[in-house]
Design brief:
Blueprint: E1 13-20, H1 26-39, E2 52-62, E3 65-78, E4 83-88, H2 96-105, E5 108-114, H3 121-132, E6 137-143, H4 151-168, E7 177-179, H5 189-205, E8 218-225, E9 232-241, E10 243-245, E11 249-254, E12 257-268, E13 271-273, E14 275-277, E15 281-288, H6 295-298, E16 304-306, E17 316-323, E18 335-336, E19 340-345, E20 348-355, E21 362-363, E22 368-376, E23 386-391, E24 397-399, E25 405-407, E26 410-420
Parallel strand pairs: 1-4, 1-5, 5-6, 6-7
Antiparallel strand pairs: 2-3, 3-4, 8-9, 8-16, 9-15, 10-14, 11-12, 11-16, 12-13, 12-15, 17-22, 17-26, 18-21, 19-20, 19-23, 20-22, 23-26, 24-25
Helix pairs in contact: 1-5, 3-4
């Protein structure tokens, strides 16, 4: 049985979220990172192949052709000092849930900005996600530099990226920016070396995160595998705290209640391991304890695996809220008590109704309020305080040609401060 490199104390494990606008080269960068990590002749430590834990795709129509768009993928790569898990978040706006899930698991975010187009709408929104969910470090990769011959255009795109990070709340002037192109197969040594520069920048800028491996177990389901055995469920999870071992009995808390499960198998990038700890992204095979479980109903993105079924949770919470201004891509109108939206705690998404404090009649874009009561549709298993992004219908009905319609719009960020028992007064 092999040992996960994420559990090797001499090789710290870091989770990287790849963010940015659609078409700016996130997936190409991910492929280049794994290629340079494995085939570079000066790296004898690159002993693992380019394993992909999963790539889930969805069909859609573009320019009259049916193509497949990756909804989320997770791959691994290495440096001489660390082992990395990279989460590729799609840039399409209708797939923001995957970007939120990636930010919730990330220790560092690599924001990909095309040197041809500069920072666009989803670049700004992904930067807001990273800041709201507490990603500590952001690095900018200026892609497609091989297609730009004017140095002034590169400077303009770099300044645009710094401005976006500053508006989101990061130190944009101090953020490291790597100019390059997603070429990692050795065809062009000049641009392939920029991928090495990006890996070196991540090693240099990111401090080793503190992992609470001795705390109570808490893990979030990032994805459920549908093609599984009838009696068992298989899920991709991010371990927030504690250590999960084979044979452990846990509580699976989801929208439809709580189920008791046993961990049958643990795998990290198809390598079987005895246990996974805080910070790891792993695939778990679960079996029901007692009555059979309908996995399609009980296990979903945002469900939690906890050590105890009586973990403190409620449908009533006290939150602090800040509405995004129009310049940040937020609402154009005020909100009053009774407004509704979806609280996105990373992978966990819960619909809620809000009641403003007694002396606050309305909240304008750009304003903040504390003591806001939120009535949730279901009670998630979250440790407080918990950061969230609020999405609602502030941008109206989003329609796609040949597809369905969906209300969407990021309108606020905030923190769930504490759970409450009493019902809110409207």
């Amino acid at each position: 049985m092999q040992t996960s490199p994420a559990l090797d104390p001499s090789r710290p494990h870091i989770n990287v979220a790849i963010l940015g606008h659609a078409g700016h080269g996130k997936s190409r960068l991910l492929a280049a990172l794994t290629a340079r990590s494995f085939v570079h002749p000066s790296r004898p430590w690159a002993k693992y192949t380019n394993r992909i834990v999963f790539v889930d795709t969805m069909p859609y129509t573009a320019r009259g052709e049916l193509v497949r768009h990756a909804r989320m993928s997770v791959v691994e790569f290495e440096s001489p000092f660390r082992h990395y898990d990279a989460l590729d978040a799609p840039g399409a706006r209708r797939l923001c849930d995957a970007a939120l899930a990636a930010c919730s698991a990330a220790d560092v975010a690599v924001v990909v900005v095309s040197a041809v187009d500069g920072a666009l709408a989803q670049t700004r929104e992904h930067a807001v996600f990273a800041r709201a969910l507490g990603v500590p470090t952001v690095i900018v990769f200026l892609s497609n530099c091989d297609r730009v011959s004017d140095p002034a255009q590169l400077d303009l795109a770099e300044n645009d990226a710094r401005e976006v990070l500053t508006d989101a709340g990061f130190s944009g002037d101090l953020a490291p920016i790597v100019r390059g192109a997603s070429i990692g197969d050795g065809d062009d040594a000049q641009w392939a070396a920029t991928i090495d520069d990006l890996i070196a920048a991540i090693d240099r800028e990111v401090s080793d995160p503190a992992r609470d491996v001795d705390a109570s177990v808490r893990a979030t389901v990032l994805w459920r595998y549908d093609r599984t055995m009838p009696k068992d469920g298989i899920a991709l999870v991010h371990v927030k705290s504690g250590t999960i071992r084979r044979g452990d009995r846990l509580a699976l808390v989801g929208r439809r209640g709580t189920e008791r499960v046993t961990v049958v198998d643990c795998r990290v990038f198809d390598r079987q391991v005895e246990s996974v700890g805080a910070g790891d992204i792993a695939t778990l095979r679960l079996s029901a304890v007692g009555e059979p479980i309908v996995w399609r109903r009980a296990m979903h993105r945002g469900a939690a695996l906890v050590a105890r079924a009586d973990t403190q949770r409620s449908r009533i919470a006290e939150v602090s809220l800040r509405l995004l201004s129009q310049s940040e891509g937020g609402r154009h109108t005020d909100v009053v008590s009774g407004f509704r939206g979806a609280l996105c705690f990373g992978a966990t998404k819960v619909a809620a109704r809000f009641v403003l404090p007694p002396r606050v009649e309305r909240l304008k874009p750009g304003e903040s309020a504390s003591g806001v009561m939120a009535e949730l549709l279901w009670a998630p298993a979250l440790a407080t305080p918990a950061r969230f992004v609020l999405r609602d219908g502030s941008d109206g009905l989003q329609r796609k040609f040949g597809g369905g319609s969906k209300w969407s719009g990021t309108s606020a960020v905030g923190t769930l401060e504490r759970w409450r028992v009493a019902e809110p007064k409207s």
